[in-house]
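[step 3/7] inverse_fold.run input=structure_tokens len=82
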């Protein structure tokens, strides 16, 4: 099993203009029923936060202070090796 990935570290490694695509890819993986590619960015951000909390409740992520740690399989493939 790979080392858990810190959510804030993943976001920090991406250029700002790529964050919406990363967040939408995350939602496509975990909440495809939302059709994240059609949502306004503000809603995408809200759903990402809700999804991270839900994953923590399910034991698929861990809260670390105000951040989250996730196993690599919880991150969309193109972003796992950042």
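[step 3/7] decode complete -> sequence:
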């Amino acid at each position: 099993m790979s080392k858990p990935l810190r959510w804030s570290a993943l976001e920090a490694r991406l250029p700002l203009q790529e964050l919406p695509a990363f967040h939408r890819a995350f939602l496509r993986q975990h909440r495809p029923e939302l059709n994240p590619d059609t949502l306004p960015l503000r809603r995408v951000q809200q759903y990402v936060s809700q999804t991270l909390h839900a994953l923590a409740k399910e034991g698929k992520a861990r809260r670390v202070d105000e951040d989250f740690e996730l196993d690599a399989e919880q991150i969309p493939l193109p972003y796992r090796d950042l």
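[step 4/7] annotate
The mean pLDDT is 94.
Residues 41-57 form the longest helix (17 residues).
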